[in-house]
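Friendly challenge for the regulars: who can give me the C-alpha cells for this chain first? No prize, just bragging rights.
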Amino acid sequence: MQHVQGVVALGSAGSAGPSFIELAGAFGGALDDWSAAVRDALAAEGRYQNWLARRLGTPAPKVSLWLRGREQVWLSGAGLPGAATTRAIVRELGLEGPSADRLAALAARIDDLQRQMEARHPRDWRKRAVEHLRGTAPAPAPAPTADAPTALPPDSPQPTPRGGRRRSLPRLAAAAATGVAAAALVAYLASTRATPDTAKPAPAPQPAAIPRAAGLEQPGLEKNTLGADSRCGEPVPGPESVVWRVCARVDADRVAFAVKLTNQADGAATARVRVRVQYGRQKAFHPCPEAPNPQPVDVPPGRTVITDPARCSVPREPVPYAYQGVGWVVPANANAGLYELSPTAHVHPDRTIWKPDLL
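First reply, four minutes later:
Bragging rights claimed.
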C-alpha cells in the first residue's frame, strides 16, 4: 500500500484491484481525514458547526455527523459528504489554496471509493463496510460545538478557555489505570437509518449526582438548569447514547460548575462513563477543589444525572472575573478525550453577563 500526497493508493501493478476490505479501510481513513480537515478549517476561520449548518441550510445534527469521520457510516444511513458538499463548505468558509485543494481531493476520494464499493456489492456495500470499519475504528472524538471548534494534541500547552479550544484529558498513570446528539440528533439518526491527578493515591468515590427523569434534549444553550443564574452549553453527543453539557452557576457568594448527562436510550443498559469537571479563569484551567480526579458516573436509561456543583465551586471574588465550566465525558475504559466548555460567566460585583446567552 502506497501513500501519495496524503491519499492511499490501493493494490499494485498487475493486480486485479484492491479488495473490498482495502477499499473500506481507505474509505474510513478518507472520512476521518475529511472530518478533521473541516474541523481545522472551521477553527482557522473562527466558525462553529452551527454556523456552518445555517449557511448550508442543512440540519445541525447532519453537520455534526459529518464531523465524526467514519462513525457516520454506521450512525446514520444518510448520504455521506462528497464533492458537492465539500464545494459548498469551501465556498462558505472562503477557503483557498492548499486547504481547499486538500478538502476537494479527500471528497473526490470518498466519492470514488464509495462508487467502487457499490460496484462490488450494490445491495449491502454499506453494511459490509461497517462490519470492517467498526472493528478498526479509532477512539472517537466529540464533534466540535459552538464553544470548542478544534482539538489539541495530548501534550499541548494549556490553552485559554475563552478561545474555545479543546484540551485532551490527561493520560492516567499506570497505577491509576489499573485501579449527544441532542434529541434532534437522535431523531435525525432514527429517521435516516435504512493528566492524571496523582495527588490522592486512593480512587475517588462516585461523585454525588442528581438523578431525574430525562427530558428531550434540545439543541442550543440551557438556562437555569442548575438553578437561578446558571447556563449550560450546547449538547454534545456520545459516548454511546449519552448526551452531555457543561454548566456553570453564579450564586451570591460562589461560582459553581457541573456536567449534565442524559442517557437518551430507552430500556437499554445503564451507560457508564468517566467524567472530569474543571473550571476556567484567567486563561487557565483549574481542578475542582473537592473533585480533582476523573470520576465514574452511571447514567440509567431514560434518566439525567448532574454532577454535584458543590464539589466544584469557588468563592465569588469582589473584582470582575470571567469563568467557564470545563468538562470531559469519555467511555468508562478511556483515558483520554476532548473537553467542552460552558458559556462564559462575566461575573461583576453587582451583576453577571453570560456570553453567549439565550435571548
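Residues 232 and 247 are 4 Å apart (CA to CA). Confidence is low (pLDDT under 50) at residues 1-15, 137-204. Your move, everyone else.
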